[in-house]
Specification:
The chain has five helices and eight strands. The protein has helices at 2-22, 28-31, 96-103, 125-145, 152-161, and strands at residues 36-45, 48-56, 64-67, 71-75, 80-83, 87-90, 115-117, 120-122. Strands 1, 2, 3, 4, 5, 6, 7 and 8 form an eight-stranded mixed sheet that branches. It is globular. The model has no long low-confidence stretch (mean pLDDT 82).
Length: 164
């Protein structure tokens, strides 16, 4: 019973975050207090895509390397992203695999992955964009699977408005 309630709360939080993304990203002034994520790279945590990087200015974390919560939106030109929990200002991206390939030119890194541990591996920016585009539909499927039918109309509005 508790896990179903937790899943429902998780879905509800995601719907609220998705609606916030649909209402439009914050302007520069609104983003001033958002945490800053530098030297970031997309990573896959189980089946979700998050960002891995050096955070500063986070309201509850000291300056250190972090893996964000699930990423729902990214604008590489404006250098902002929205995760399930908050907006981030983005610094420089970091291509860890390219750095490794440059450092070890005699090793074939064609199929290499960034392994951070705990089922967390690197992802490409294309995979990140694909996951963001598909996320509301996969959340809709989760609602059906968990029989959270009262959330479906709300989520259906998000799915229909979500840019693909």
């Amino acid at each position: 019973m508790g896990s179903l309630a937790n899943a429902r709360q998780h879905i509800y939080q995601l719907i609220l975050a998705l609606e916030e993304v649909l209402s439009g990203p914050p302007d520069v002034r609104q983003m001033e207090d958002s945490p800053f994520l530098n030297l970031w790279a997309p990573v896959r945590v189980h089946s979700d895509i998050s960002l891995f990087g050096q955070v500063s200015g986070h309201p509850s974390l000291p300056e250190r390397q972090v893996i964000t919560s699930l990423i729902l939106y990214i604008d590489l030109e404006r250098r902002i992203s929205r995760t399930m929990n908050r907006w981030y200002r983005l610094g420089e991206p970091r291509d860890y695999l390219r750095e490794a390939a440059d450092a070890f030119p005699n090793i074939d890194m064609t199929d290499a992955v960034l392994n951070i541990g705990n089922d967390t591996v690197g992802a490409t920016v294309d995979q990140l964009h694909a996951a963001i585009a598909d996320f509301p539909r996969s959340l809709l499927a989760d609602c059906l699977l968990l029989q959270q039918f009262d959330l479906l109309p709300w989520l259906d509005r998000v799915v229909k408005a979500w840019p693909v």
